[in-house]
Amino acid sequence: PPDPFAPNHLQQPKITIQHLLPYCTKRGVLNEADITNLAEVAGSLRELVAMALRGEVDALGRDVLEGAMGVEMAQGVREFWGEEWVVD
After folding, report:
1. Sign (positive/negative) of CA torsion 66, 35, 76, 80?
2. What is the model's pTM?
Protein backbone atom coordinates (compact mmCIF):
# COMPACT_ATOMS: atom_id res chain seq x y z
CA PRO A 1 0.00 0.00 0.00
CA PRO A 2 1.12 3.59 -0.52
CA ASP A 3 2.89 5.33 2.33
CA PRO A 4 0.34 7.72 3.93
CA PHE A 5 3.17 10.00 5.04
CA ALA A 6 4.83 10.27 1.64
CA PRO A 7 4.51 13.68 -0.04
CA ASN A 8 1.73 13.79 -2.57
CA HIS A 9 3.08 15.14 -5.85
CA LEU A 10 0.26 13.92 -8.04
CA GLN A 11 -1.76 16.94 -9.02
CA GLN A 12 -1.43 20.35 -7.54
CA PRO A 13 -4.35 22.63 -8.33
CA LYS A 14 -3.37 25.15 -10.97
CA ILE A 15 -4.81 28.55 -10.20
CA THR A 16 -4.39 31.15 -12.91
CA ILE A 17 -5.08 34.85 -13.05
CA GLN A 18 -8.35 34.01 -14.88
CA HIS A 19 -9.57 32.09 -11.81
CA LEU A 20 -8.93 35.01 -9.46
CA LEU A 21 -9.80 38.04 -11.60
CA PRO A 22 -13.59 37.78 -11.27
CA TYR A 23 -13.27 38.48 -7.55
CA CYS A 24 -10.72 41.33 -7.65
CA THR A 25 -13.31 44.07 -7.32
CA LYS A 26 -15.46 45.65 -4.63
CA ARG A 27 -18.41 45.94 -7.03
CA GLY A 28 -19.77 42.45 -7.60
CA VAL A 29 -18.12 39.84 -9.79
CA LEU A 30 -16.40 40.78 -13.04
CA ASN A 31 -18.03 39.47 -16.20
CA GLU A 32 -16.19 37.51 -18.89
CA ALA A 33 -15.59 40.56 -21.10
CA ASP A 34 -14.07 42.54 -18.21
CA ILE A 35 -11.88 39.57 -17.25
CA THR A 36 -10.60 39.20 -20.81
CA ASN A 37 -9.91 42.93 -21.15
CA LEU A 38 -8.21 43.10 -17.77
CA ALA A 39 -6.04 40.06 -18.52
CA GLU A 40 -4.88 41.79 -21.71
CA VAL A 41 -3.58 44.84 -19.83
CA ALA A 42 -2.27 42.96 -16.76
CA GLY A 43 -0.53 39.64 -17.35
CA SER A 44 -0.27 38.77 -13.67
CA LEU A 45 -1.85 39.67 -10.36
CA ARG A 46 1.33 41.55 -9.48
CA GLU A 47 0.88 43.75 -12.58
CA LEU A 48 -2.80 44.24 -11.78
CA VAL A 49 -2.04 45.34 -8.23
CA ALA A 50 0.61 47.79 -9.45
CA MET A 51 -1.76 49.18 -12.07
CA ALA A 52 -4.65 49.50 -9.62
CA LEU A 53 -2.52 51.25 -7.02
CA ARG A 54 -0.98 53.49 -9.66
CA GLY A 55 -4.51 54.37 -10.81
CA GLU A 56 -5.18 55.79 -7.37
CA VAL A 57 -2.34 58.30 -7.72
CA ASP A 58 -2.03 59.17 -11.41
CA ALA A 59 -4.14 59.47 -14.52
CA LEU A 60 -2.13 57.00 -16.64
CA GLY A 61 -2.87 54.01 -14.39
CA ARG A 62 -6.48 55.11 -14.08
CA ASP A 63 -6.86 55.52 -17.85
CA VAL A 64 -5.48 52.04 -18.59
CA LEU A 65 -7.94 50.33 -16.24
CA GLU A 66 -10.88 52.48 -17.31
CA GLY A 67 -10.08 51.86 -20.96
CA ALA A 68 -10.10 48.12 -20.34
CA MET A 69 -13.31 47.87 -18.36
CA GLY A 70 -15.09 51.20 -17.94
CA VAL A 71 -15.05 53.77 -15.16
CA GLU A 72 -17.27 52.03 -12.60
CA MET A 73 -15.67 48.58 -12.79
CA ALA A 74 -12.16 50.09 -12.81
CA GLN A 75 -13.05 51.99 -9.64
CA GLY A 76 -14.15 48.72 -8.04
CA VAL A 77 -10.80 47.11 -8.91
CA ARG A 78 -8.88 50.09 -7.52
CA GLU A 79 -10.95 50.00 -4.32
CA PHE A 80 -10.34 46.27 -3.91
CA TRP A 81 -6.56 46.54 -4.28
CA GLY A 82 -6.45 49.74 -2.23
CA GLU A 83 -6.99 47.54 0.81
CA GLU A 84 -4.08 45.54 2.17
CA TRP A 85 -3.69 42.24 0.34
CA VAL A 86 -0.59 40.11 0.00
CA VAL A 87 0.23 38.90 -3.51
CA ASP A 88 3.16 36.59 -4.20
Report:
1. negative
2. 0.71
